[in-house]
Amino acid sequence: MLARESEFARSKKRLLADVGLLVLLAVVTAGIIAACRSAVEAPPVLGSQPRSKAKPEGQKREQGPANEAETSERADPNDPNRPGRPLHQHKAFKERVKDRQSMVTLQIELRDVKDPNVLKAMRTVPRHAFVGRSEQRWAYYDHPLPIAENQTISQPYIVAFMTEALRLRPGDRVLEIGTGSGYQAAVCAEIAREVYTIEIVEPLAKSAKKLLKELGYPNVFVRAGDGYFGWPEKAPFDAIIGTAAAERLPKPLLEQLKPGGRMILPCGDEWGLQYLVLITKDQKGRTQQKKVMPVRFVPMTGEVQKPEAKSRR
Question: Which terminus of the chain has fewer Cβ atoms in its 10 Å neighbourhood, N or C?
Answer without folding.
Answer: N
